[in-house]
Amino acid sequence: MSDFVAHKEEYTIRLGRPDDYERIAAVELAAGKAFVEIDMAAIANDEPPMRAEIEARCEKGHLWVTVGPDDHAVAYLMIDLMRDAVHIEQVSVAPAHAGQKLGKGLIDTVLVWAKDCGLRAQLRHPHDISRCAVEHALLRTSWFSTNIRRISFR
Q1: Is the Cβ–Cβ distance between 94 and 37 less than 8 Å?
Q2: Which of 2, 33, 78, 91 to pair with 49, CA 20 to 30 A apart?
Q3: 153 lies in some domain
Q4: What averages of pLDDT result for each successive group of 10 residues across the chain (154 residues)?
Q5: Which DSSP state fits 124?
Q6: Which range of residues forms the domain containing residue 100?
Q7: CA distance 108 to 104
Q8: pTM assigned to the model
Q9: Domains contained in the chain, number
């Protein structure tokens, strides 16, 4: 899909495959730990997506992964389609690869895909925390706010 270089390591963004599940689960568990630092333990303790969910999203073309030269997922993004909008359900980056704009690369890829499909992009919060509280907490973090502020979420 797209290739780019970040901090001397080459990464590729591609559609996810069912065999990416173990890496996606590991990325989710590791990335979730960052939420402990901002007092959002409920998110930090969230379980990774189930294998069946990953397989279904792969079948629909609703999961993108960023892979290194070894073709192992180090970041992923999942979407849902609702009416005329792409809802970004989840973006996670392995902490060992943080700060290299991998989340931005995934978001940009989905934005182009959404535009090409005539869709708009939105962020969806699946947790039982009010959207306002989640946005306020997340926007205080540098690892989240940079990308979210530039995208129109309704």
Answers
A1: no
A2: 2
A3: no
A4: 56 96 94 78 78 95 96 95 85 91 91 89 49 46 52 43
A5: -
A6: 2-148
A7: 6
A8: 0.77
A9: 1
